[in-house]
Specification:
Oligomer: single chain
Shape: globular
Structural class: alpha+beta
Number of helices: 4
Distance between the termini: 8 Å
Helix content: 25-40%
Strand content: 25-35%
Strand order of the largest sheet: 1-4-5-6-8-7
Radius of gyration: 18 Å
Protein backbone atom coordinates (compact mmCIF):
# COMPACT_ATOMS: atom_id res chain seq x y z
CA UNK A 1 0.00 0.00 0.00
CA UNK A 2 1.10 3.55 -0.70
CA UNK A 3 1.25 6.22 1.98
CA UNK A 4 0.97 9.91 1.27
CA UNK A 5 0.67 12.99 3.48
CA UNK A 6 -0.84 16.14 2.00
CA UNK A 7 -0.79 19.65 3.43
CA UNK A 8 -3.81 21.72 2.36
CA UNK A 9 -3.02 25.42 2.89
CA UNK A 10 -4.94 27.76 5.14
CA UNK A 11 -7.19 30.31 3.44
CA UNK A 12 -9.19 33.48 4.00
CA UNK A 13 -12.02 33.75 1.50
CA UNK A 14 -14.32 36.01 3.49
CA UNK A 15 -16.31 38.27 1.19
CA UNK A 16 -19.16 40.68 2.03
CA UNK A 17 -21.07 39.21 -0.93
CA UNK A 18 -22.72 36.06 0.56
CA UNK A 19 -22.54 34.30 -2.83
CA UNK A 20 -18.74 34.68 -2.76
CA UNK A 21 -18.13 34.16 0.96
CA UNK A 22 -16.27 30.90 1.61
CA UNK A 23 -15.05 31.76 5.11
CA UNK A 24 -11.69 30.85 6.57
CA UNK A 25 -9.88 27.55 6.81
CA UNK A 26 -6.82 26.34 8.66
CA UNK A 27 -3.94 24.25 7.39
CA UNK A 28 -5.27 20.71 6.98
CA UNK A 29 -3.26 17.49 7.10
CA UNK A 30 -4.43 14.49 5.10
CA UNK A 31 -2.94 11.07 5.67
CA UNK A 32 -3.81 8.96 2.64
CA UNK A 33 -3.43 5.19 2.42
CA UNK A 34 -3.89 3.87 -1.12
CA UNK A 35 -4.48 0.23 -1.89
CA UNK A 36 -5.67 -1.73 -4.90
CA UNK A 37 -9.30 -1.71 -3.74
CA UNK A 38 -9.59 1.83 -2.43
CA UNK A 39 -8.27 4.65 -0.29
CA UNK A 40 -8.50 5.41 3.43
CA UNK A 41 -7.88 9.02 4.40
CA UNK A 42 -7.52 10.65 7.83
CA UNK A 43 -8.20 14.40 7.88
CA UNK A 44 -6.83 16.60 10.65
CA UNK A 45 -7.47 20.34 10.99
CA UNK A 46 -4.45 21.98 12.66
CA UNK A 47 -6.03 25.26 13.82
CA UNK A 48 -3.06 26.98 12.13
CA UNK A 49 -4.40 29.96 10.15
CA UNK A 50 -2.91 32.71 8.05
CA UNK A 51 -1.26 35.34 10.25
CA UNK A 52 -3.93 38.05 9.81
CA UNK A 53 -6.68 35.50 10.56
CA UNK A 54 -4.86 34.35 13.71
CA UNK A 55 -4.73 37.96 14.90
CA UNK A 56 -8.52 38.28 14.48
CA UNK A 57 -9.07 34.97 16.27
CA UNK A 58 -6.84 35.96 19.20
CA UNK A 59 -8.62 39.30 19.53
CA UNK A 60 -11.87 37.37 19.84
CA UNK A 61 -10.26 35.04 22.41
CA UNK A 62 -8.95 37.92 24.50
CA UNK A 63 -12.25 39.77 24.42
CA UNK A 64 -14.81 36.99 24.79
CA UNK A 65 -13.18 33.74 25.82
CA UNK A 66 -10.43 34.59 28.26
CA UNK A 67 -12.77 37.04 29.95
CA UNK A 68 -14.72 33.99 31.09
CA UNK A 69 -17.69 34.39 28.80
CA UNK A 70 -17.04 31.36 26.62
CA UNK A 71 -14.50 29.04 28.26
CA UNK A 72 -15.72 26.07 26.25
CA UNK A 73 -14.32 27.64 23.05
CA UNK A 74 -10.68 27.72 24.13
CA UNK A 75 -10.01 24.11 23.17
CA UNK A 76 -11.66 24.55 19.77
CA UNK A 77 -9.52 27.61 19.06
CA UNK A 78 -6.16 26.17 20.03
CA UNK A 79 -6.02 22.40 19.57
CA UNK A 80 -5.87 20.37 16.36
CA UNK A 81 -9.20 18.88 15.41
CA UNK A 82 -9.56 15.38 13.93
CA UNK A 83 -12.33 15.55 11.35
CA UNK A 84 -12.89 12.38 9.41
CA UNK A 85 -11.68 9.02 8.22
CA UNK A 86 -12.81 8.82 4.61
CA UNK A 87 -13.26 5.75 2.47
CA UNK A 88 -12.80 6.37 -1.26
CA UNK A 89 -13.79 3.63 -3.68
CA UNK A 90 -14.35 3.20 -7.41
CA UNK A 91 -17.34 0.99 -6.70
CA UNK A 92 -20.39 1.68 -4.55
CA UNK A 93 -20.02 -0.08 -1.20
CA UNK A 94 -23.64 0.51 -0.07
CA UNK A 95 -26.65 2.72 -0.83
CA UNK A 96 -25.59 5.67 1.37
CA UNK A 97 -22.25 6.31 -0.38
CA UNK A 98 -21.88 9.71 -2.02
CA UNK A 99 -20.90 9.78 -5.68
CA UNK A 100 -18.32 12.31 -6.91
CA UNK A 101 -18.96 12.44 -10.64
CA UNK A 102 -16.03 14.78 -11.26
CA UNK A 103 -13.78 12.77 -8.97
CA UNK A 104 -11.37 14.06 -6.37
CA UNK A 105 -8.01 15.27 -7.67
CA UNK A 106 -5.84 13.36 -5.18
CA UNK A 107 -7.53 9.92 -5.35
CA UNK A 108 -7.83 7.61 -8.37
CA UNK A 109 -6.26 10.30 -10.61
CA UNK A 110 -9.50 12.31 -10.44
CA UNK A 111 -11.74 9.53 -11.77
CA UNK A 112 -15.39 9.45 -10.62
CA UNK A 113 -15.54 7.72 -7.24
CA UNK A 114 -17.61 7.06 -4.13
CA UNK A 115 -17.13 8.54 -0.67
CA UNK A 116 -18.04 7.04 2.66
CA UNK A 117 -16.66 7.53 6.15
CA UNK A 118 -15.83 5.49 9.21
CA UNK A 119 -17.54 6.94 12.27
CA UNK A 120 -16.96 4.07 14.69
CA UNK A 121 -14.30 1.43 14.34
CA UNK A 122 -14.80 -2.26 15.14
CA UNK A 123 -14.16 -1.49 18.85
CA UNK A 124 -17.07 1.02 18.76
CA UNK A 125 -14.66 3.93 19.30
CA UNK A 126 -14.95 7.17 17.32
CA UNK A 127 -12.46 6.37 14.57
CA UNK A 128 -11.05 9.85 13.88
CA UNK A 129 -10.44 10.38 17.61
CA UNK A 130 -8.57 7.06 17.81
CA UNK A 131 -6.48 8.01 14.76
CA UNK A 132 -5.61 11.35 16.37
CA UNK A 133 -4.59 9.73 19.66
CA UNK A 134 -2.46 7.16 17.79
CA UNK A 135 -0.64 9.97 15.96
CA UNK A 136 -0.12 12.16 19.03
CA UNK A 137 0.60 9.46 21.63
CA UNK A 138 2.49 6.89 19.56
CA UNK A 139 3.64 8.62 16.37
CA UNK A 140 3.13 8.37 12.64
CA UNK A 141 3.77 4.62 12.29
CA UNK A 142 1.02 3.85 14.81
CA UNK A 143 -1.41 5.99 12.80
CA UNK A 144 -0.52 4.17 9.55
CA UNK A 145 -1.05 0.80 11.26
CA UNK A 146 -4.51 1.94 12.42
CA UNK A 147 -5.39 3.18 8.92
CA UNK A 148 -4.26 -0.18 7.50
CA UNK A 149 -6.63 -1.92 9.95
CA UNK A 150 -9.45 0.34 8.74
CA UNK A 151 -8.55 -0.50 5.13
CA UNK A 152 -8.83 -4.23 5.84
CA UNK A 153 -12.13 -3.65 7.64
CA UNK A 154 -13.49 -1.69 4.65
CA UNK A 155 -12.04 -3.63 1.72
CA UNK A 156 -10.69 -6.93 3.02
CA UNK A 157 -7.03 -7.91 2.83
CA UNK A 158 -4.88 -5.90 0.45
Amino acid sequence: MNRKIMFMPAFDKINPDPSKNYGIGCLELRFILEGEKGVIEFQLLTNWYQEHVMKRRFEFLKKDVWSGKKDFLIRGFLEPFPVDICIWSLSKRHEDCLFFEEGVSYVFDGKPCYYDYIYRDNNDDVAHDVAYRKLVDDGEESLWKYLEEQYVEAFGNA
